Amino acid sequence: MKGHCERMSQQWWRVIRLFFHNGSYRVKLVCGVLLVLAILWLANRASFIMGWHYDPNEPKLQGSRYRYTVLLNTWKRDDLLKQSVAHYSSCKGVDAIRVIWSEIEPPSESLLLTLSASVFSSSKTLQRIPEFRVDLHDDDNLNNRFKPIEGLETEAVFSIDDDVIVPCPTLELAFSVWLSAPESMVGFVPRMHWTDSKRHDTSYRYGGWWSVWWTGTYSMVLTKAAFFHKKYLDLYTYHLPPTIREYVRSERNCEDIAMSFLIANATGAPPFWVKGRIYEIGSTGISSLTGHNHRRTHCLNYFSALFGRMPLVASNVKVVPAYQEWFW
Question: Taking the complete model, does pTM exceed 0.85, yes or no?
Answer without folding.
Answer: no
